[in-house]
Amino acid sequence: MSSKALSTWVEVPVNSDFTIHNIPFGIYSDKSVKHRAASAIGEYIIDLYELAAAGLISVNREVLEQIVLNDFITLGKPSTTKVRQEIIKLLSDENSELKKNQGLREKVLKKQSAVNLLMPVRVGDYTDFYSSMDHAVNIGTMIRDPKNALMPNWKHLPVGYHGRASSICVSGHSFHRPKGQQKPADAENPVFGPCKLLDIELETAFIIGKATQLGDSVSTAEADDYIFGMVLFNDWSARDIQTWEYIPLGPFLSKNFASTVSPWIVTLEALEPFRVKGYEQVPKLLPYLQYEGNKNLDIKLDVILKTQNGEEHPVCSSNYKYMYYTMEQQLAHHTVNGCNINVGDMMGSGTISGPDPSEYGSFMELTWRGTKPIKLKDGSERKFVNDYDTIILRGHCEKEGMRVGFGECVATVLPAKP
Per residue in 193-234, pLDDT tens? Predict the structure, then answer.
């Protein structure tokens, strides 16, 4: 099916993330539905259970009435891809049953604004990487020195750590500012209290779509078969807590208090037209990390800060194409020792920063550790994120008349609990 030739009878607003070229997957609820699998087109969600009940898509209805998509994803890519293609055909065929049957159409297409979008998967395990070279150089320059910004292993493997899955929440949530130990530069001993340097991390994450057994490894050539799709991801960070705790074992309380994901999983199939060439990786990597073809993705990413009065302020724009290591390399490295993966596991890209200061993906970089505050349109400044600030991530791909987007990834910071 040629994606360039597609059109739909559903009215899709200009610059919508949810065009006929996308057809992502998620979970929704409303007054009459507790939880069901859905897709999206324009301003509407598409109730997949109702499509299956009408015999218009080839899938068992039971997997579409679960609280998460894990069972649906477990059917395998041949099945889920077929469902996506059937939806595309229904939405592009002027004579489809869905268009002709008004009663069915009203049950299937519901305004996104009238439903709740839920957490799309049950995340069993979560891993976060550190794979943007610009970000790693910036952080290394700040905390070490420009000559030794990258650690000796950084250009030999995708650095990562295992995070906390229980505190990953779907877009639209709020959370309390974390508390913990911090050590001021002029103090001999640490102090305890609310985090003062609360930061964002502009990331994407990929969702595992196929399990492996303990002892199995996934090669870079096989990796796409194990990746169901991608979401936007904000891996909130408490920089002052992190600075004190991270030696010798890395992030702990500074990262496990909250992470935010967008509700729609955009499939690899939808993203395929936006593949671009990646970095030349020097020195040459070990064979298990080498790959062929274009594996980076041209995904434009934006961060917006919304103040308590509701005014939105652009913070930065970056692009996933600036990733030094690809998803395929990250997955190959993650499993090379025989670590098993499960459907629904989530793997964060790490902060995505570009070469220009306007493309830095964290306040730590944008304000250069607070020394260059961001000036907002209302005259106020931000060194890091304040209480009652809302952070919005947006992302989309666009090429030759095709647009595929992720929607929004939104969360609000509340004051620390007493």
Answer: 999 999 999 999 999 999 999 999 999 999 999 999 999 999
Q: How far is CA 181 from CA 43, 139, 168, 405, in A?
A: 45, 21, 22, 39
Sequence-ordered alpha helix ranges (H) in 154-292:
239-245, 268-271
Candidate list 21, 135, 333, 396, residue with the active-site label:
135
Residue 315 CA to residue 303 CA, distance in Å, equals: 5
CA 416 to chain centre: 26
Q: How far apart are the first and last CA of the chain?
A: 57
Distance, in Å, from the CA atom of 69 to the CA atom of 62, rounded to the nearest integer, reads: 11
pLDDT value, residue 2 = 44
Helix, strand, coil shares of the chain, percent, nearest 5, are 25, 30, 45
- pLDDT one-digit tens code per residue, 54-82: 999 999 999 999 999 999 999 999 999 99
CB 179 within 8 A of CB 418: no
Question: Which residues have a Cβ under 8 Å from the Cβ of 376 and sit 6 or more positions away?
Answer: 305, 307, 313, 382
Domains of the chain: 3-118 (2.30.30.230), 126-414 (3.90.850.10)
- Provide the pairing of β-strand 346-348 with 126-129: parallel
Residue ranges for the chain with pLDDT beneath 70:
1-5
Q: Do the strands 126-129 and 36-41 form a parallel or antiparallel pair, or are they unpaired?
A: unpaired
Catalytic residue status for 135: yes
Sign of CA dihedral 15, 20, 22, 27: positive
